[in-house]
């Protein structure tokens, strides 16, 4: 019986060690999962910061281009208005003579 008791004792010790190893493996697994999540979170934050910086850069560039385009359009409109005014001024005398001729029948 002594031998049977020793076998039972060894089996119980082996079972206890197995349970401890399983618990330790679970803890290590939980720690690895936590570390992986933390690392992924940091990488996502870094990526997000990079993309936000790119967006700000594009917005700044676009704002500068919009200002330049607006300035160019203002200059073009001013030139066109001046050209039309010059054209109208140069032909106003001729138009006045035509109106007088039609109205007075001369």
From TrEMBL:
- List the InterPro entries hit by this protein, alphabetically: V-ATPase_G
GO terms (molecular function) for this protein are: proton-transporting ATPase activity, rotational mechanism
Q: Does the keyword Transmembrane apply?
A: no
Q: Which domain of life is it from?
A: Eukaryota
Q: Does the keyword Transport apply?
A: yes
Gene3D superfamilies, alphabetized = 1.20.5.2950
- What would be one Gene Ontology cellular-component term for the protein? vacuolar proton-transporting V-type ATPase complex
Q: Which terms are listed as keywords in the entry?
A: Hydrogen ion transport, Ion transport, Transport
| Family, per entry | Belongs to the V-ATPase G subunit family.
Q: What is this protein called?
A: Vacuolar ATP synthase subunit G
Q: Which organism is it from?
A: Giardia intestinalis (strain P15)
């Amino acid at each position: 019986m002594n031998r049977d008791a020793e076998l039972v004792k060894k089996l119980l010790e082996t079972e206890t060690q197995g349970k401890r190893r399983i618990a330790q493996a679970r803890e290590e697994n939980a720690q690895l999962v936590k570390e992986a999540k933390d690392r992924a979170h940091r990488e996502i934050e870094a990526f997000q910061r990079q993309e936000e910086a790119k967006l700000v850069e594009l917005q700044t560039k676009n704002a500068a281009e919009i200002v330049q385009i607006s300035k160019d359009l203002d200059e073009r409109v001013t030139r066109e208005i001046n050209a039309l005014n010059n054209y109208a001024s140069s032909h106003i005398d001729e138009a006045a003579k035509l109106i007088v001729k039609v109205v007075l029948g001369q």
